[in-house]
Structure formats: structure tokens, C-alpha cells
């Protein structure tokens, strides 16, 4: 899922300063699962903002909505009938969702209520960690299911750097060396021959380096 | 009245403040005694989160508190309730009620008139 963290409330209040009636839009997708932008978070943030604004003598009216997904046009359209009645939309979906709203709803300013994080997994309630950087050319079949792009702090492709000490990455004592994890797993799976199969170089043309990407599936159009 | 403090969530607690409460007292069963195993533990975490929110937006601190007692401790309940009310009276009306021109003070004045 796409993860994120709430923006500090003072920052949100500062963004909302010019407005006195807004829509607060959540998303039932990823941000609901990582507890940062779902229906519940909409309720809590709306109450918080109303209280803060009223206490400061400048009341704000907030319409609370939660779209199924902010990254799909049919759900974004659901806001169209009433969006013009409000001065701004504060979205607590991921950056993709917020931008998609901004693209489709061009007459109303869109504000981000969260800081979008990464593609990750839930370790336990309240803890998420990164797993994939969407490189566009997955090699997990050769690396024991552990992503070198993400789990190696330097995205190396051919084994650990000299900073790997007893399985710990030199970047941070809390980070396990991605390459140590990969080698250990390959040994355990008796698949060390895969190590030699890694491409001589990793092509990054399918990754972010070529600018914003697009997927077109002719079979689905 | 809720059957278990586990049903309380942050939104509900904040709503109470929006509806004009100067303080919110959450009373749950004794820890380890929850009929639903961890309802009161969850409630405590949520109360803590709302405490932090209220502090951030300068409505708190000390306007929300969780107490734990058993259903048989009537006199303890009364003592806790009195303690909390005293605490809130001392704090005075919440900034929301001040902005609305009311709160504990106003309520007290109303009572005495
Ligand atoms: S808008 Fe973002 S958070 Fe919501 S479903 Fe789409 S990708 Fe996930
Ligand atoms: S190799 Fe690329 S696609 Fe596969 S998990 Fe890593 S970043 Fe994601």
C-alpha cells in the first residue's frame, strides 16, 4: 500500500487560514489501511480543525467526505455536484489522489493534509516499512523475494558494499543490510546460482529517471 | 453511556468538545477486567491521543482523563467525578466555550441565579 503520515496540525491550520468553508476528503484505499486518510481520520481531523478554528475566533465549516478512491475518475466525479460550494478541498489521500483531484477539479484549490510516504507493508499496528520503489523491471525472482532497489540503501545490484557489517547497513544501525538478507535467503533456498543471473547492469529507463511514467495496457483499452 | 469504553473513538471524544464540553471523563473497567479483553486498554490509548490533539490546538491539557474502576465502586466513582469536576472548574471554560461566550462559569452562574 501507499503509506503516509499526518501533516502537523499547525501546518494544516496555516494552509487553511484564508478559507472558512472547505471539503475535507478522505480515501477508502491505501490511506485507510495505514490509518492516515480514511473515514475515521476525516472525522478526527475535521473535529480538530473546527475546534482549533473556533477557539481562535475564526470558525470554519467543513464538509466531511470519503471517496472510494481518489485516484479513479468515477469516484472523483462524485464530488463535482457540490465542490463549487466550497472555497478549498483538503485531501488526506496520497499524493497521487490529491493531484488527481486537483487535475479534475480545476476551479477549487486542493491542499494536502498528509505527507505521502512510500510503497510499504504493515509490520504491526502503527509500524510500516518500505518494500518497493516501483522500478518497473522487477528482479525479485532472482533475489530471494527481497528487493535490492529498496532494501539496499544504495540500491546496489551486485552484492553488499564495504559498509555492510554483520548484517547491518552502514547508513543506519536500525537498517538491515539488504544484500545480506538477499544472500542469506538465496543460501537458504539453495538458489545461489540466481546471484550470477542478475543483469550485468540494471536498466533504469523503466524507473523514475525517465520522468513521470505511464502504463498503457492495449488489451484493456 | 456505552457498553464498553472500547467503543469510544477519537472522533467521539472530540465531538463532545465540539458540543460544548469543558472536560471529558472516560470511565472504564479495571485494566485486566475488560469483558471484551482489551476495550479499556484501547480506550486509554485513544484518550491519550485526544489529550495530545487538545494540547496541540491549545484547548487542553487536562481536559480529558481516563479513570478505571469496577461497577461495585460507587463511592470511588463519586470521588473521581468530584475530583474531575474540581479540576475542570479550576481550568475554567474551554476556549471553545469562551469563544461562544459560555462554559462552566456561565453554567455555574446560571445555576446560582
Ligand atoms: S488515492 Fe492514493 S491512497 Fe487512495 S486508493 Fe488511490 S493510491 Fe491509494
Ligand atoms: S525490483 Fe523493482 S519492482 Fe521489484 S520490488 Fe524492487 S523496486 Fe519494486
Write a brief structural summary.
The complex is a heterodimer of chains A (221) and B (113). Chain A has 221 residues and is α/β, with parallel strands linked by helices.
Tags for this model:
heterodimer, A: 221 residues, alpha/beta, Rossmann fold, four-stranded parallel sheet, three-stranded antiparallel sheet, 9 helices, 31% helix, elongated, B: 113 residues, mainly alpha, two-stranded parallel sheet, 5 helices, 2 strands, binds iron/sulfur cluster
Q: If you consult CATH, what is the topology of the largest domain in chain A?
A: Rossmann fold
CATH superfamily of the largest domain in chain A: Response regulator
Provide the number of structural domains of chain B.
Answer: 1
Strand line-up in the sheet with most strands of chain B: 1-2
The N- to C-terminal Cα distance of chain B equals 30 Å
User: Order of strands in the sheet with the most strands of chain A?
Assistant: 3-2-4-5
Derived from helix and strand composition plus strand pairing, the structural class of chain A reads alpha/beta
SSE order of chain A in H/E notation?
EHEHHEHHEHEEEHHH
- Report the average pLDDT across residues of chain B: 90
Portion in strands of chain A: 15-25%
Q: On the 0-100 scale, what is the average pLDDT of chain A?
A: 95
**What does the largest sheet of chain A look like?**
4 strands, parallel
- Low-confidence parts of chain A: none
Written account of the structure:
- The complex is a heterodimer of chains A (221) and B (113).
- Chain A is elongated.
- Chain A is of the alpha/beta class and 221 residues long.
- Chain A contains 9 helices and 7 strands.
- In chain A, helix 6 links the parallel strand 4 and strand 5 (110-112).
- The mean pLDDT of chain A is 95.
- The longest helix of chain B is centred in the middle third of the chain and has 18 residues, at 39-56.
- The chains are: A alpha/beta (221), B mainly alpha (113).
- One iron/sulfur cluster (SF4) is lined by residues 132-135, 138-140, 147, 149-150 of chain A.
- One iron/sulfur cluster is lined by residues 132-135, 138-140, 147, 149-150 of chain A.
